[in-house]
Sequence to fold (198 residues):
Amino acid sequence: MNEQRIFGYATHTVPLVLALESIGGDVLELGVGYGSTPLLHNLCIPTNVSGPIRNVVSLEDNLEWYERFAGYQSSWHLVVFAKDIITETKRFIESRRFGVVLVDNDSTDLEVKGMFENRIEAVELLKDEAKIVVVHDTDDVRLSTDSRWLDLVDSFKFVSTWNSFPQTTVLSNVFDIFKDTLVTKLSLSGSECDLTAR
Fold:
């Protein structure tokens, strides 16, 4: 897969960076990938001037993808192979609260639980446990027409959508990531991306 194609799908990077810049705390990544894992790793590198250490936990339930990104393991970045990403998410939120969570995971057991069923379950778990939840691929018809997903989105106080392809939705009950942002439209790779908030 060439680099341009990989990053063409990494439309969640702008909302993810804005979320990281907006609020502190540890970061949870559900589903590793070229557009998020290296970015989170590098943005959270501890330095003497950046203030408190911001740890990253990356959970992946696909062994092949886990092995691609296991090299990012460090003192501030835990990369975990999770046979069941929901069970591992529960385990981690029992011991800490996350500032930012990226939900971009696939379920390796797609016959039992579909990819978006898994994402809905993850967001339900994280609703009151994370300050900001960034969800990728929210324009997929399997998610965007699911009544459980739509009800879940409506249950959040702040909802912003990065209207690119694929689309990214930012959810929070404590912080409106784009409230005072001057940037509501950016041009990325020649295509415009609009931000809508309710």
Q: What stands out?
A: The two ends are 36 Å apart (CA to CA). Confidence is low (pLDDT under 50) at residues 1-6, 180-192.
